[in-house]
Amino acid sequence: MAEMVRVAVDAMGGDNAPGEIVKGAVETVNARDDIEVILTGRRELVDAELAKYTYAAERIRTVDCDEVIETAESPVHAISGKKNSSMVVGMNMVKRGEADAIVSAGNSGAILVGGQMVVGRIRGVERPALAPLIPTEGGVALLIDAGANVDARASHLVQFAQMGSIYMEDVVGIKQPRVAILNIGAEEEKGNALVKETYPLLQACERIHFIGSIEAREIPHGGADVIVCDGFAGNIVLKLYEGLSGTLLKKVKEGMMSSLRSKIGALLIRNALHETLKSFDASEYGGAPLLGCKGLLVKTHGSAVASDVRHSIIQCVTFKQQGINDKISAHIGCRKETADV
Amino acid sequence: MAEMVRVAVDAMGGDNAPGEIVKGAVETVNARDDIEVILTGRRELVDAELAKYTYAAERIRTVDCDEVIETAESPVHAISGKKNSSMVVGMNMVKRGEADAIVSAGNSGAILVGGQMVVGRIRGVERPALAPLIPTEGGVALLIDAGANVDARASHLVQFAQMGSIYMEDVVGIKQPRVAILNIGAEEEKGNALVKETYPLLQACERIHFIGSIEAREIPHGGADVIVCDGFAGNIVLKLYEGLSGTLLKKVKEGMMSSLRSKIGALLIRNALHETLKSFDASEYGGAPLLGCKGLLVKTHGSAVASDVRHSIIQCVTFKQQGINDKISAHIGCRKETADV
Question: What is the pTM of this model?
């Protein structure tokens, strides 16, 4: 039997907590025999949800916490002030090695802050980075950083490239992932000061397959497997993906409902269209890992439902079994002299 | 009769030059009686295209230029080296007041450089900014800057907000346009160093209707009328709009072609869908003006066809008739003490 992976799940985080979070945990242990889930949250609420299901009881347990970090709270204040919150309790379990990973749909900023302040960075990693998978025409691409470091430096971006490359190869299974830096043109001389400084460092980086700049236009076409950028630019990409997909699909639906003729047509294409567009639905790809911390933190979106939670938990298994953090630790170290230039 | 507006058109710029450019010029003078077009380019090529059409000959003339700036050329080198190129000749006409504006589908970087080096800035404007209209659910929004200033400062962004606001109100016709700064969260304390520095300056700016931060997710929903950002971030938004729209529509088409049933459905909805999605087609909105120069420069996309050229030329008329540059000059001056903080 494979090694058991223990995942702490913040049962109180997100818009649909604790119902969908608990349901996702139950679905996971029913589908897989190599995962143990520790649900952190108000015991009476969590256990009431658990009571609705049949599951392998020895692989889900509840840890009672009487505090909850709210979405609108200041991240630093929340993490340092609410020691007994479902999020901080889970993070401390990761820190102490009682859990391999934590999944949360709660306050995004608090997850990023907690990754640094509670769980801690891997030795040699300057900044952890948020690395969601985003859909492309032919598959997915890893966007790193998607919002953890809004004023990143060149040496940070080099580490993002290294960490992203390892993740894409060993967790997602893309051999020799193509790494590109997000830029405003394909030519080497283009870019802002940060990109111009980072570009030659990435070229000099031996353990990644650097293919140069990528324009935002080429991201959905699948122009690269790992897209390196600072957290401000990455967050724009991530959020615009969300907003624009939503708006375009709304427009398509409006178009289909505009006449009787098109309404009939809409009935005929509905299933086919749904299947195709599902492949472009970011929530299918699990949560976003915060790479570079001593354990794994996975941030799933605030409106996560059970299937999102399940995907996020299962992602932690591959991460653990592939020894991603050991690899990050080894690779980051080896190029530090370049990264620090 | 309205005052005649004289627009220089770079007949050699873009993938479809000179054919589509000349066709667009002819369509314009045939549709409007208040525009004169000056086509700059190789006379024999331009005149051969002109010979295909019937038009008011006194309102189109050709200025012969024997050089062409290629797409791949270094902008600074091209502008300073090719004095007799179709682009530089047109820019010099604007500088000398022989034309009110220039429209080009050529080398984007060269247009930005030429705006500063050849045409020159309006007194008081620190940096001209590229300001395309992008489609939203309910209409359009102005994105400023979309790529002219990749390392902008806070004082630049304040001027972008002022120039964008004037353009949106007087050219596009949106009363009291809502101005927002592109950010990674709606809260005031969020953002990178540039956004944090700019935010209070925009709050203190009296002549604009500043509504705070906008996340990229809200842009397609129409969350603001003027979106202020540095050229690096703006270029990402613009290019991702292009790439993602293309990919999603391709996915929709694939979905509709995946079974016989859905193919029949596709036939029924085709027209309705086409009409709806046309409203989301950026090329319908004309070219992007470079705001802040002494004359108007309009950059239309490299693959521009006649209708894009026509829209771009017509845009220049409103710009001129509304006296936009006089207004920019007046407004920019009045807040300079704040902008320079």
Answer: 0.91
